[in-house]
């Protein structure tokens, strides 16, 4: 049994692959943005206690951990889609929403510090 990343139907136009690309792009933006904010304003600006402790230990460790989780997710979801495509698709939509909100939060912080128009 195989699953196409681009499985589409009337319910799920756009396909899982687009969502996975969005997860990867938002995750990378979040990592770069968080690194810049932590290096500029300290680890107190990071809301996630696990990532805060990793950044306190070493920013390289934090980046490696985040990238490892991203790679694991990008490998795991297509396998999960073989068993339950709807759950994998909807779950990935939720992950995109969460990372989108993180990006919005970063942009708000940038704006508050006068780094955006």
TrEMBL record:
Keywords: Membrane, Transmembrane, Transmembrane helix. The keyword Transmembrane applies. This is DUF5658 domain-containing protein. The chain crosses the membrane at residues 20-38, 58-81, 93-111. Residues 21-110 form the DUF5658 domain. InterPro entries: DUF5658.
